[in-house]
Amino acid sequence: MGSCYNGPLKLLHMHLEKRNYFRIRGSFSLKICCLLLFIGGNQVQAQTDKLNQFWNEYDFTKDLSQKWVLQLDAGLVTSSTPEDSDIFHNITQFYLRGWAHYYPSERWKVSVFYAYYSNQNVPELNQRKAPEFRTAVQATYSLLKSSPLKINLRARIEDRHIENDDHYLEAVERFRFQIKAVCPLTTFGLKTKAMYVFASDELFFKTKSQVSGPDLFDRNRASLGLGFTVIENIQIEAAYANEIMPRDPTNKMVNAIQLKGIFNNFFPTLIKSFKRKKNAVDQGDGSL
């Protein structure tokens, strides 16, 4: 009889020992993984150049009809360097962009632009000077039509032609996907219709080239800001933006202050005056 009971007890004892072994082994493996992640995180942090930048942009629009709008942008970017934290140390970029916007419905906007970029000492480009000609097609969709909170989804395909050191224009395709939320301050009980807060996040993907590098994932850009209407047809937006650009061997991180002036219907005497009624997709861009 004793041997009949000892057999099951022995099997139970062996099973418990085996469970303890795998539990200890699993705990040890988890600790090793945590240690490797900690070391890897420190290495990523140690190999990241952190830059401070100032992004300044002016937008001028002209309503042609309820469905068509023209726009002209001009922008200037200044940046610090890893050796100098001054946000205005270098002028890294100047650009001019001409847009045409088409509104097929209340919640959709389709846009195209052609632009020239003067790139100098741009952190993510592999040369000191890289003039660029850029065209793009963009679609914006408004998720929420009747809610005070407006959310826009935006997709953009950019065809970039960047001059390399051999004075040859390299073609680089870039794909951008953004989600943006705009909320008027009246939602929070403040008695003002002229101010709003906005937040956005955008993912960038690109093709490989000599100038832009071999990475497929270009960057992630997140921003948080405040906009207000100064007078009718004039808006100002101020925002903080953070960009993370994974690169080999040194990653780039940009902390930027962004200031934008928006001037609607800026050319009333050149083209017959027309004022559009703003729709849901406009409100998702901040035109409340």
UniProtKB/TrEMBL annotation:
Protein name (Swiss-Prot/TrEMBL): DUF2490 domain-containing protein
Domain of life: Bacteria
InterPro entries xref list: DUF2490
Pfam families named among the record's database cross-references: DUF2490
